[in-house]
Specification:
Length: 282
């Protein structure tokens, strides 16, 4: 009888995505500190995700981005985890709505005065502004980057989709690709990509879903190199021209120059393109 109660309690405990992440971490023999090191997310925020205490996190975008990174660190399907987290956020938002209490609008005793209503509006605006400033100042730089990448993705996809066809048409007409042609990354299947600085440290990263495009910002082209552990899942184009595979399937490739000239040289088999560093995927 005692064994049945323990089993039942174990099943009831796994009710939210945070429980699933925690159990996967424990099964892998990892501590919160280990996951924090892998994801560059503070332990208190990871713990908030495990406990589904989303109000402790800066916002919806942060919650989703942190959960995806956590899932990747413990070998859980990050797309599925992100979908579960969004559903829980929607449920929490719905559950937090106040219960509607109907009353007779013509009853003067139930209606606030105009002065009181304006006072409440001003106080609410001040509180919202103060809360936003506090959230901004309380987020660590690395974590702000995680969420900013998710926000910037939507803004960059539209220019990428519009600019790439135009550049391809110009290249076809002139017979050459301009030196400042846009560099566009497209996910053939779900693929993780990272951008390394001059010291080889991954400063920025994101995941591309199948068919999703990302136009590399000009600042990234000059400052960073590309890395990915699934070259076969990533398509790279310069001005609409496909430069071909970056390396063998399921092999970590890095130090890939994002400069259009270097990528075109790679496509043409030129010697001027820096050779990427490759290592077996972990």
């Amino acid at each position: 009888m005692a064994e049945e109660e323990v089993a039942t309690q174990g099943e009831l405990a796994i009710t939210r995505t945070g429980d699933r992440l925690r159990l996967a971490r424990e099964a892998a023999g990892l501590s919160l500190a280990d996951v924090a090191t892998r994801t560059r997310i503070t332990q208190r925020h990871l713990q908030a995700i495990e406990k589904s205490e989303f109000s402790e996190l800066p916002g919806r975008t942060y919650v989703t981005g942190f959960a995806r990174a956590y899932a990747r660190a413990v070998d859980l399907p990050e797309t599925e985890i992100a979908a579960d987290i969004r559903r829980e956020l929607d449920e929490d938002q719905y559950g937090a709505r106040p219960i509607y209490e109907a009353y007779e609008p013509t009853d003067p005793a139930r209606l606030p005065t105009a002065r009181l209503a304006w006072t409440l509006v001003i106080v609410a605006a001040v509180l919202v502004s103060a809360y936003g400033v506090w959230r901004f100042l309380s987020v660590e730089p690395d974590e702000a980057l995680v969420a900013a990448q998710n926000r910037d993705a939507d803004a960059s996809e539209a220019p990428a989709a519009a600019t790439a066809p135009a550049a391809a048409g110009k290249a076809a007409a002139d017979g050459a690709v301009p030196a400042d042609a846009p560099v566009v990354l497209t996910g053939i299947s779900e693929v993780w990509i990272g951008f390394d600085d001059a010291n080889g440290k991954t400063e920025n990263w994101r995941t591309l879903d199948p068919g999703e495009t990302y136009q590399v910002p000009s600042a990234y082209i000059e400052q960073f190199t590309l890395r990915t552990s699934r070259p076969q899942a990533l398509k790279v184009t310069v001005g609409g021209r496909d430069i071909g595979s970056l390396g063998a399937a399921d092999t970590l490739v890095k130090s890939i120059s994002l400069k259009p000239a270097d990528l075109l040289a790679r496509a043409e088999g030129g010697a001027t393109a820096p050779a990427p560093k490759a290592s077996p995927r972990r």
